[in-house]
Amino acid sequence: MLDSAAHPPHWTGSSFFGLYPALVTDIVDPDRLGRVQVRFPWLGDTGADVRSWATLLSPYADDDQGFVALPAVGTQVVVGFEAGDLGRPYVVGSCWNGREMMPVTPTRPNDKRVLKSRTGAVLEFDDNAAAPKVTLVSRDGHRVVLDDGGRSLQVTHSDGSTVTFTPSGQISLRANATVEVTAAALNVHAPTAVFDGMISCTNVVTSVAVVSPSYSPGAGNVW
């Protein structure tokens, strides 16, 4: 329904078929019907402020579920009208223009699909046939890369710490500070465990012999 004295609630004037530009002015629908308020700068007399609550189309909308991505206030959107009725607008999408620019630069292969948030978080799908991958990057630089081309997976903290799963099955953990594990119990099953630094234990209980190339007698040692 139009929110302007320029036209009555039940518009009986000309029909408006096709698509028209509009500007988002509000996103909090008082009736919670999934609408956004839009303004039609091209409609009415000069200086007229003609607005309407328009149904926002979504690729997935159902009861208490769906895909929600509301356009920001001030965003240019494209509007169509049901059966040409000016009082029944639908927002069919938003568009970039000379003021709001695309977040990426298009390339001829057109391999990438990108979702970028206002704060700079990015979800990128790279469909390069030789090296497909999915990358998720947060505003502060935390990164997850699912690399099908390299058959690897890597989680990277913004400080440079990483967890990497390699094609050979190796898992590599690299931390720039202490790694702490807290659990009710910790079981490690491996034929060989290699430590190249000092090991400090509060209590040690062994069920087999402890073998070392050097041995220092001391309290508790068994001769």
From TrEMBL:
Ranges of residues in domain Gp5/Type VI secretion system Vgr protein OB-fold: 20-96
Name of this chain's protein: Gp5/Type VI secretion system Vgr protein OB-fold domain-containing protein
SUPFAM superfamilies: gp5 N-terminal domain-like
Domain of life (superkingdom): Bacteria
